[in-house]
Amino acid sequence: MKRMLSGIKPTGQLTLGNYIGALRNFVNYQDDYEMIVFIANLHCITEYQDPADLKKNLTDAVALYLACGLDPKRSVIFLQTDVHSHAELGYIMACNTYLGELNRMTQFKDKAQKGEKNMTAGLYTYPCLMAADILLYDANYVPVGEDQKQHVELTRDLAQRFNNKYGETFVVPEPLIAKVGARIMSLSDPSKKMSKSEETNKGCIYLLDDLKDVRKKIMSAVTDSIGIIQLDKENQPGLYNLIEIASALTNKAMEDIVKEFEGQGYGKLKVYVADIVCEEMEKIQKRYHEIIDSRQIENILKEGAQRASAIADPKLETVKKKIGLEIKY
Ligand code: TYM
Questions:
Q1: Is the CB–ligand 1 distance for residue 142 below 6 Å?
Q2: Cα-atom radius of gyration of the chain, to the nearest Å?
Q3: DSSP output for 277-291
Q4: In the chain, fewer beta carbons within 10 Å around the N or the C end?
Q5: Residue 229 near ligand 1, beta carbon < 6 Å
Q6: What is the mean pLDDT of each run of 10 residues along the chain (329 residues)?
């Protein structure tokens, strides 16, 4: 069975973008692949997080993984810091990454260009840690949304570089990006990705949002004045985004949704999208509350970390031996 690995960085509450672009796919893949999914908590602290908020967001993220259908029997689920090999291989990867490569990473470049102050060294070297996350497990595939593709491509380069220098060590992973839903856009500004770090809350749906607010956000989603229901991503990006959300959640082709609503107003389509999103989220939220109440999270993470360490730790040992870092007495 091929192995798949992915993670989410809960710097805030998980979003509908995380669900459609990533989490939902992890759940679907877990029957056909050996699935390893972790909470990327080290990645969270590349920017300051209030400690109490961070702790809550991490717990909620695990509960949401489970609520969305990740099954700890079939998938390995763990917290990144519970497996120490991540940080150690992350450093080794940073020593095999060129500054030019990190300068080209669009997430970093965008922030730097916006003139963001107080950017940390951790934020800069974060793709090296992400490469370590993946390479420790010899993952064949990495299911991610569009915005993470560049990081997985860097991981491939680093794996190949290491293999060339030190001999065959790492599996070179492939990014796996869904055809529909790989880049869900903000509802209030469809030129931007839906993201936890949005300044206003209007464009981002959080998986734990009150369903009344979810409906409101969808009904007031920015569209256009063209007034025709069709697929024109360039001129009608807001409309396209709503249809894409509906398509991802129903598995209906976007063209079929357009046909269903042809000649009708945007209002009707928005009600349809709101119904679909709320129905899905209601199920997730119900399961989320059951999981939080059952207090099973700690045990699941403990077992997950043991299973993950059993793969990652020997891999790190191999890497250290190959580099010549170890002295055996
Ligand atoms: P993060 O936490 O930003 O996002 C988690 C996953 O959700 C996807 N995603 C989206 N997909 C569609 N539309 C959106 N609006 C949207 N927003 C987010 C992301 O593409 C991602 O798949 N660096 C990673 C976490 C990470 C990781 C890893 C992932 C750390 N180590 C190893 C895979 C393998 C991140 O910050 O994702």
A1: yes
A2: 21
A3: HHHHHHHHHHHHHHH
A4: C
A5: no
A6: 97 96 96 97 96 97 98 97 98 98 93 89 97 98 97 98 98 96 97 84 95 98 97 98 98 98 96 98 98 94 98 98 90
